[in-house]
Amino acid sequence: MALPRRKSITEPLTFYSKKYTNLSQLRTGAKIGIPNDPSTEGRSLFVLEQAGLIKLKAGVGREGSPLDVISNPKKLKFVELDPAQTPRSLDDLDAAAVNGNYAYISGLTKTRKGILVEKPGPEYVNYIVVREKDKNAAWVKTLVKSYQDPSVRAFVNKSYKGSVIANF
Asked: For the whole model, what pTM was predicted?
């Protein structure tokens, strides 16, 4: 059964570096931190593939692991980390994929630009979801209307500076 849902936010995956200001500066053998959770690990590899740095096995999409990398011309070394540790590991890595929430709370969004930013797409939009029986409840309509108000969009854009994107 499909639950009623309304779009809210997306937190794009961003690769940050303390050593480089541009993706093209990554050296051969660079150590790249990637989150080790099942959803974000494949997502980070997919972003690297989209940037032309690696090639994944056919059909893997956003569900791959380092074992699915079939071409790696720069011989990037993947360091799998707990997602919360990726921003903290930047001193020891050449770059790391950092979820938007961890980038924000670690101050990365205020102190540096990402060297590679995921193109926002519908795959990672967060939703306001309610039970089918509540879909027409007054409180749901109030919640959605309040959340999707232009003032909330302005707040998200001003406060999070791209680490969170309002999709409503």
From this structure: 0.83
